[in-house]
Structure formats: C-alpha cells, structure tokens
C-alpha cells in the first residue's frame, strides 16, 4: 500500500453488515464496496452462503467475521454505520429454526444496538412487511399497526421483527441513537437460494426440474415483488436520510399467486401444470406496500418492472450448477 492509498483507507467510512452472506446482505456489501466504504461483513452462515461474497474476499476494504450476533458482537476499531440484516427470512427457514429466529431479532438486535451506542454509529434495521401480519387494509401504509398472530407458526418471525422495531425506537428515543427502520416487502433477484421455499425460487426451480408448480391454497392471495437493485437503492437513500420512523420499501405492483404461477410458466416455457396444495397457516391474504413516504422522503420508487426483473433472475437460476437445482426444499 502506498502513502496515498493508506490515507484513503484511513478516511474510509466503516460499515458493519450483519447477514452479509445472505441474499440481501451480499448485495448490500457490493453496494457499499462500490461506494468506497470499508465493509465489515458478519454472518454465522445458518441460511447464508460464503459463495455470495467470495468475490470480495481479496479486497483490502472488506473483512469477514464468522459470528452469531445473538451471542455477542465485538468489532475492533471505529464503526460509522451498522446494517442489521441477519435473520432467517423465508417461512420454511424460520419454521425450521424458530428459536434462532426469535433470538436474532431480539438478542441480536440488542447486541448490535449496544455496539452502535458504544461506537457512536448510525444503525439501520431490516424490518419487514410481516409486521403487518395478515393485513386488513390494502395497500399497507406505515401507520397501520398490523394483524399478527403471536402464537401462530409465523409469529416467531413477525414478533421478533416487531420487537426489533420497538427496541430500535427505544434506543433512538432514550439514548438518542441515530436509527433507521426499513420495512422490506417481498424482494427477489440473483443469489436467492433456489431451495429457500419462497414462492419465486420454488416456481422457477419446479419449472427447471420439470415438476408441476405448487400454488398454495386457491392462489387468490397476493404479493408485490420488488427487484433487489431497487430495494438496495431505497435502503441506501434511507440510511443517509434524517428520518427515524419506519419506511416501506417495495414494489406496489400486486399479483395473485395463481397469476404469478402462470407468469412463470410463460417465462420458462415449461409444459408442466399448476397444482394446488394446502395453504400454510396464517398465510397473509394480501400484501402491497404504500410507498407514499419513500417517494416523498427519499425521492425513491422502483425502476425495474417484474418482466425485466424476472428475466434476469431466471437467467441467474439457469446458470447454476445442476447439483444445486436438484436440492429441493422438501
Ligand atoms: P437470507 O437468509 O438470505 O440472509 C440472512 C443472513 O443472515 C444469512 O446469511 C444467515 O446466515 C444470517 N444469519 C441469520 N442468523 C444469524 C445470526 N444469529 N448471526 C449472524 N448471521 C445470521 O435472507 P434475506 O432474504 O437476505 O433477508 C435478509 C434480511 O432482510 C432479514 O433480516 C430479513 O428478515 C429481511 N427481509 C427480507 C425480505 C426479502 O424479501 N428477502 C423481506 C423482508 C425482510
Ligand atoms: N406459495 C405458493 N407456492 C409455493 C411457495 C409459496 O403458492 O411453492 C405462496 C405462499 O403461500 C404465499 C406466497 O406464495 O402466499 C408468498 O410466499 P413466500 O414464502 O415467498 O413469502 P411470504 O409468504 O413470506 O410473503
């Protein structure tokens, strides 16, 4: 390293990203490396994969800690920003590991808020549209308090995230900590796990394997899918805004799961059919973000429509080794 490089490395802002080896965390690492930050990545690899960030390991402004943030968090040196993205996010993941899910949203968040306070860092947490549960208003504005069953199977995720928001707001109010809360709606794109059980990889995986597409229930339930690059841009803008209340980031284009299955059939050209399976307990009937706040406060709105985003994501899944394709969620 020459003298100029040393000065620039000392001046770099340092950002801690938890859940860095996961789908969204790895895209955040890419973005902040691109913005010339020093990225401290942390993950315990419970649902993540080092492959998602292996292209960054040779960089001098990237480091990785294999650590469970629910146990403790220690990072030497200064930290200017923290993005807490560690948490299982797919229903089949958090149903398999319910206690870890509750712990990372609660104890993990507490540990990271403590670190943020000690370091004087600004912390942004990854919350979710799941805080609205099975919503009785559509689209969902941030003011809606939600309709969550705390003791249902999804409660471990939803309540952990609601606690996470409450704890973060308490640190903001009582300790004056700089905090940001993003409520993320269903996001998709390259680096999702083909076998993570979420509807998009499930349908594309089934099409690629020549299996029928499994629509749960009668397929009238809706979701609104946001392409990952749009989400990352929204998070970036929120982090550098001065707004501490929750902000929805998602794509308001809503679709039923039956129509979505048909869209994937057209995209992939599969000759398989759609079969209906039992609807999981407490599966939300509708979900669509009201993004009035994101538009007004951040000047943000999604740019990638579903046709474009699905094409990119399909190409990504098609390029994966055949062995990965064979690992189903069952
Ligand atoms: P993911 O499973 O791909 O990534 C989560 C990462 O967190 C994984 O790499 C996992 O190993 C890591 N992790 C989990 N527990 C940990 C712990 N105790 N210590 C350290 N690392 C741990 O999921 P994702 O889709 O990238 O989601 C990332 C975050 O965004 C989550 O907090 C999730 O709740 C939130 N979110 C995602 C979506 C979405 O559509 N993808 C929607 C709403 C909210
Ligand atoms: N879903 C489906 N078939 C599948 C997987 C999921 O019909 O193989 C449905 C699921 O019941 C839900 C929607 O797709 O209504 C989105 O599910 P996902 O697990 O992707 O996310 P979430 O329910 O958390 O929004």
UniProtKB/TrEMBL annotation:
GO terms for cellular component: cytoplasm. Signal peptide: none annotated. It comes from Pedobacter frigidisoli. The keyword S-adenosyl-L-methionine does not apply. GO terms for biological process: D-xylose metabolic process; UDP-D-xylose biosynthetic process. It comes from the Bacteria. It is a single-pass type II membrane protein. The keyword Transmembrane helix applies. Its cofactor is NAD(+). PANTHER family: UDP-GLUCURONIC ACID DECARBOXYLASE 1, UDP-GLUCURONIC ACID DECARBOXYLASE-RELATED. Gene3D superfamilies: NAD(P)-binding Rossmann-like Domain. This is SDR family oxidoreductase. It is found in: Golgi apparatus membrane; Golgi apparatus, Golgi stack membrane. Keywords: Decarboxylase, Glycoprotein, Golgi apparatus, Lyase, Membrane, NAD, Signal-anchor, Transmembrane, Transmembrane helix. One of its GO terms (molecular function) is NAD+ binding. Residues 15-250 form the NAD-dependent epimerase/dehydratase domain.
